[in-house]
Amino acid sequence: MASKILTTYERTFKSRPEKVYLSPCRINLIGEHTDYNLGLALPAAISKYISAAVGRRNDRKIYLKSLSKPYDVIVDLENISNNPKNGWGNYPLGIFSTLIKRGYKLPFGLNIVYQSNVPIASGLSSSASLLDLTGFIATNMYGFDFKPEEIALLAHQSETEFNGLQCGVMDEFAIALGKKDKCILLDCATNKYQYENIDFKDLSLVVIVSNVRRSLIASPYNTRVAECKKGLEILKPHFNISSLSELKVSDLEKCRNLIRDDTIFRRVRHVVNENQRVVDFVMASKVGNIDKMCKLLNESHESLRDDYEVTGEYLDYIHEISLKYGALAERMTGAGFGGSSIALIHKKDYESFKEKVFNDYDHKFGIEPLIFLAEICDGLIVKSL
Ligand code: GLA
């Protein structure tokens, strides 16, 4: 993968890049739509990467090139704004703008050539990967020496303030903090985390990409954020809480009486139950209770379908046929509205499962899904040349 960006870099800039950077993407095992409610999530970085070849310039321009985009984006550091004509470039540019806004001096421009094997708009967080990657590039090239969690927060600030998506911190943390074979138990109220060894025993963790592309900014994602906020406003005077994630499952009966709007109540119910599922999942994994882990994953999908209404027909169909073809558990992962899901299947059954799900889904929708084994990996990587 790296060789193509190196040759493209050399051809475009008539010089050698100084460093190559890599950023993975992520799955989330459980704890969905909880992060912006300051709850719990259990993501992990997986080995689909965006890579970048980088070198400094003699002027103060940021020159962005992507092997998969038809146009380059060239902007002066003095003059960065979220301009629709910059298209994909608005993600990396937000990082430079956010650093400048925070008062950092960026004394020189950069040339960056990106290449990706992360399926775009697939719910595997290609955008957070691009943001973390660029945050890592900028802070490393300018010598600011940010820790992974600081890069995640920089990327998150950039995505919310510069790109306008009211997302939580999960994706940026999952990618920046990724560790081989470990999941990250993240508490989004404090941004504290711990690594968890989740043992799937003789089950394989499979990723199924629906290949229904969607942009989160154009999806009802921000509507869900607003609905949760509304629920919180109603409940605040009755419970001493500053986020929905402080509620317990045993509070839900009282919540039902307080919230007249059934939609808002169901959003709240999902968040409260989903947080509890994260706790229960980690406990079940510590005692090796695979049945319980699978049950919780399936319940998570059902709650996202029935209470949170973010699964949609493609991911629901994948859920249905995955269970039919032998998965013990299957749930959407990430934001939903199209995107991806994860499944647990006996190792010996993986190949036939893959074939059956592929053919059935393709036959039903005329879309080929992408199905692969998840390989949980390290986060951001830099190599000097
Ligand atoms: C997207 C967002 C995350 C999180 C998930 C849903 O991936 O970027 O912050 O809200 O959806 O869990």
Explain this structure.
Strands 5-4-6-3-1-13 form a 6-stranded mixed sheet. It is of the alpha+beta class. 40% of the residues lie in helices and 21% in strands. Helix 2 crosses helix 4 (148-162). The site of alpha-D-galactopyranose has 12 residues, from helix 5.
The radius of gyration over CA amounts to 21 Å
Termini separation (Å)?
15 Å
Structural class: alpha+beta
- Secondary structure tally, helices: 11
Task: Note poorly predicted spans.
Answer: none
Please, what is the average pLDDT? 96
Q: How many individual β-strands?
A: 13
| SSE pattern | HEEEEEHEHHHEEEHHHHHEEHEE
Largest sheet: number of strands, sense, barrel closure = 6 strands, mixed
Outline, from the CA principal axes?
globular
Q: What helical percentage do the residues reach? A: 40-55%
